[in-house]
Amino acid sequence: MKIIEVQDEQAGGKVGFDIFKEALANDAQVFGLATGSTPISIYNELTASDLDFSDKISINLDEYQGLAGTHDQSYRYFMDEHLFNQKPFKESYVPNGLAEDMDAETTRYDRLIADHPLDLQLLGLGQNGHIGFNEPGTPFDIQTHVVDLTPSTIAANARFFASEDDVPRRAISMGIGSIMKSKKILLVAYGENKAQAIAAMVEGPVTTDVPASVLQNHDDVTIIVDRSAASKIKNRDLITTIA
């Protein structure tokens, strides 16, 4: 793992942008993308740039079950607003939250990922160590699946909705097994509320209790954090600080 500590989210966005730029220079074709507030600074840098993704493919991590892509809290809507409308891809895939047959939808998504191997996967990190919507206890080899969201995840996402009661209780998520097949992984986390999860991911045992800890087993992982998120890492020699 390569851990890069930055001053703030804006600086993290610039570092993340450079990683996307390098991936393009190395002929990356398929980009795994994430939603939430954390990657926005990277998307802002991408949309302001002259990088061209018009012949590339994107595959998103997850989507709420029960929300149409036009719903303003769906992840398809988020991606359109923050990236795709300004920086279109040749093809952009997000799970269908309104699929009538969820088993068929997860199978379709797995086939899609198999047909388009991920060159770079962008991840955020949940306070409980989840990646995508792979909550604690999720098997490391699982593929795309429907998830019952934990109370802590529902509470964390409530800020995006009118109330906690409006947060969907289920989601479709790319599985950890699929994430780990990506050629390169970029995980980004900011703030003191992510510090414990970061420390457990980096220095703790590899355990399904902390889904992100499996990234210790991947050959090419870069982690971007601010000082607050890195504050509980005991071995500071693991960290490269960018002023």
Automatic annotation (TrEMBL):
GO terms for biological process: carbohydrate metabolic process; glucosamine catabolic process; N-acetylglucosamine catabolic process; N-acetylneuraminate catabolic process. Pfam families: Glucosamine_iso. It comes from the Bacteria. Its EC number is 3.5.99.6. It catalyses: alpha-D-glucosamine 6-phosphate + H2O = beta-D-fructose 6-phosphate + NH4(+). The active site is at D62, N128, H130, E135. This is Glucosamine-6-phosphate deaminase. It comes from Weissella bombi. The lineage of its organism: Bacteria, Bacillati, Bacillota, Bacilli, Lactobacillales. The gene is nagB.
